[in-house]
Queue: 2 jobs
Job 1
Amino acid sequence: MKEQYEVIMAGSGGQGLVVCGIILAQAAILEGQNAVQTQSYGIASRGGFSKSEVIISRNEIMFQQVQEPDVILALTEQAMKMYASGEPDRPVFYDTTLLEKRSGRNLYGFPFTEMASLLGHVGTANIIALGAMATLTGMIKTDSLATVLTRRFAGKVADMNIKALQAGIELVTQD
Amino acid sequence: MQREAKLVQGNEAIAHGAIYAGARFYAGYPITPSSEIAEECSRLMPKVDGVYLQMEDEIASIAAIVGASLAGAKSFTATSGPGFSLMQENLGLAVMGEVPCVVINVQRSGPSTGLATKPAQSDVMQIRWGRHGDQSIIALTPATVKECFTLAVQAFNFAERFRVPVILAADEIVAHMRENIIFPDPGEVQVIDRKKPTVPPEQYKPFEPESDGIAPLAAYGSDYVYHVTSSMHGLDGYSNNDPANAQWRVAQLHRKLERYRDEIVMTKSYDTDDAEVLLIAFGATTRAARAAALEARKNGIKAGVLQLITLWPFADKEIAAHGKGAKKIVVVEMNYSGQVTGEVRRILGPEKDITLVNKYNGQIITPKDILEVLK
């Protein structure tokens, strides 16, 4: 396990990227780590380029922005173009419900939104992605993410989010 | 039981810090990137029997907090550039009337309404000189979410102690950033309340300083009935056009802060003892500067960082002391004109090698940007 992980989640406003970043950061804090979450967005509350960055570290986090991402989530074509053509070893997760399919050994395309819709709410697409990213990188225990989800949501919504997390974990453990 | 660390946004931490300091009156008009302070206050204030008031604009907001403070409440407002401009007139009233209050200015990219969601540190000089007339101001600037909390408390402590408005000059980066912090328990951080008069109401002079240089402040609505005016006034608060009185009053407004200058001016230094390159930064840019300095040391460049926590009064002495031994000075700030760099030049002189690393396009200064000039 590395001392520090840096994550970029990019897409458009309203896709829940900030909340997704917050959940990851909160899970890191549960594990006794330091976390910084930042965001960049335009003046529109929906639509327009939006980005959520998370750094989790066992040490003090000085510069607050991601410099060398360990994993990327792209939810729009624009985000994909910005981040997919980087390091060949850097995993990039993207949503094949929303984006064209691509090939590349570091590209992990899954129909997050379609899966989320089948689970009961498209809003859980990010949680599916988070489960997959956490499992692949080992940056955070998926149990910690589950704890944050059960604290954040109640009743059926919590159950749905836990199912989404589990679905994400299975996406990368299956093969 | 060990208290739990929480993921908290800078703006939220400011609201919590203000309430920890005893603030019980918030009046404001939401504006990006400060709106979460208003949101958080709307939730927190009712729980502590405080008042949250959404005003029609920023002029009304500052007028309300000046009034609330005179009525005895610790009061504050939060805004950004466009709103801060509107507040200057009544901020001047707070200086002249010696009304303790806190104004949070979360700086965003300008001029005018500029880039509403993007960061800047371009109000440094407006904070100092934005009001007409000859006056002084205290301004603090946080670099972390923890400092958002602690400096909010400190801002109220200074305001109450010295009967002055205090500006908490955050920037969009720190205000919107979330970090893990543990909120202190009540009593863990010192909270200072304004001095109340000890003389009977008929003897009370609202502008007569005691031996510590500060006049006690009674609350409107109490047995102490007194007058506050923005015009030149005597010790009793009533208009006074005597040149000797004006001379004393203008000097008094400055002197009460000059006297406590060493307590007000706060800096932090990182690896400056042997530094040949001194990076000077404040607010969010401190973080890039610290990361750059560490990286530079790996490459054999002896770099250190001086963080300005207090922007005004300016850290003349501290910059002179730290800058003397350094061969090269690099000032990092998010504005075109080098508002802090100019002050550093004033202190260290034209012979000193002083470089400005700046951005003014709404983008964030990175450690790499700083390392470029250290090569």
Job 2
Amino acid sequence: MNKYDVVVIGGGPAGIAAAVAAHKQKAKVFLIEREARLGGILKQCIHDGFGLIRFKEKLSGPEYVERYIDMLNQTSVEAVTLTFVSDIKQVEGGYTLTLVNRNGISKIFGKTIVLATGCRERTAKQVLIQGTRPAGVFTAGTAQYYVNILGKMPTKKCVILGSGDIGLIMARRLTLEGAKVEGVYEVKPTPSGLTRNIVQCLHDFDIPLHLSHTVTKVFGEDRLEAVEVAEVDEKMNIKEGTQRKIECDALILSVGLIPENEVAYSLDIPLDRCTKGPTVDQTFMTMREGIFSCGNALHVNDLVDYVSEGGEIAGENAAVYKNKERKLIDIKTDKNFLYIVPQKIDINAPIDKIKIYFRSIKDFDNTKFIVSVDGKVIMTKKYAHLRPPEMESVKLDLSKETLNESSVILLTLEE
Amino acid sequence: MNLVCIVCPNGCRLTVTIDGEDITVTGQKCPKGKTYAIAEMTEPKRSVTTTVRTVFEEAPVLPVRTNGEIPKDKIFDLMKLLDGFVLNKRIKRGEAILRNVFDSGVDVIATSGMLMKEET
Amino acid sequence: MSAEERDKLIKQNPAYGEIVCRCEEISKGEILDALNSPIPVYALDAIKRRVRPGMGRCQGGFCSPLVMKILAEHKGVKVEEITKANQQSKVLLGDTKGAQER
């Protein structure tokens, strides 16, 4: 059985960054990817806006990830594609993984594992739309695959439910390919995607955005023929009398992403209820020794630049992992945070260059992000605008503080 | 008039005032914001990202983009131009398939090197 | 099936080692078996009932395009001919770049 210091599961931007970072620390690395090509979801994200922070350039998804693939090709990391992880078992000193591919079944040993398995889309089933089950209902990511990888059109005239980034991007993409996007309907009173996508995908093409609206019914036996939309109140209940039928041949759903953590379930790795990803410390190690997490599997990101950064943190730490005893303290937050990553600090691990990612619970203008340790304010950062769809990242240095197991680290947002 | 800058993730809220020929921009955190706002008021430009057909079975379409911005009102003209384009050469990531579209000084380039045969 | 038996099967037919539906761990070989059976089925829903791709967490989000390609290739047709259920339920309309016709 081949033995590795770090086994990375997932060959998208997070996994590749982790593998390259682990290799830089002189670890023996194995990368497993289930698709035929590396690159993860970025292969189909042909729009630009990637790498503004990382490379100070406006790249498309394939360009961004191929730069990382080029870096990977410069290393001695063993990468396999079209390979599936069927089973993982904890053993003495690490984990054995059972792999399935066209060559057969094989087993490898990894001292540490980096979970970089990305996320999946919330489905029609989970949005509970009444009516028939015709062809023509697509999640935005699947529609994107058809258009950008297979070169096929799924629609002539469609309605998009959900103002998440993928829905906004597809509104523009489908319009550019000649389809009519009747409108984007969002159940919340505020849009879910990045502001710049609202501008360059909807405003640019005069595609209306209807907030506080949802799709209530679908019509059509074999192929979608129409949908019914309606206004909702603050409790997201349908307002009677606001129903409207719209003729269309497709309903595109952009109603949320869910981190993929089946492996975490099978290994009893605790997940954070808010992020739906594993709870981690500042080294991005989960609560299971030697198992690290990064990318969208850890928490759904908006910017791939932060995905790469997170991948590097996980990969680097997996490479130098020594199975030392951890001393974990929770990072506490006030009610103004939707979530933070990491959720815990291991005071036995380096605490000088901690990266904290967070989302505010609602829109805030002119806010101060404050970090206090045992009641003493040690850092503040001002933000002109904070929105839940726009995740922020801060650097934190706790090395100058005296910390012990009962120390209280508190993050607050003050307007 | 208010607009949101779309150049980078910051999304600065900009206020633009036009007084005859003078355009004043406030709210930007960097000079790119001012450039963007002025362009939006005078001649809005956008980058275009799309795919082109290829003759290669393993890649029915190849992703491409403009390597700069073209006038916003030329977006669909460019799409029409690319509709008829069929790539029959294995080109590298970054290579141009069309140069200087509509005399804009902007090329359309491949954004993936997937057509290049891998050396094993 | 033990790992040894599965390994032997894959070495005889590599399609059994190519996982298409990762939520339910279903291989291309199993899908092809359904297509090669005495009563082949060429619709997504029918394959889903027989072999289960599309029944898992992602509800076909990742595997539907792959399953459609396998069906189209086996039948010798373009992928836009593949239906969800009966003949009137085509999933795709045709190629992109047809904006002129639209």
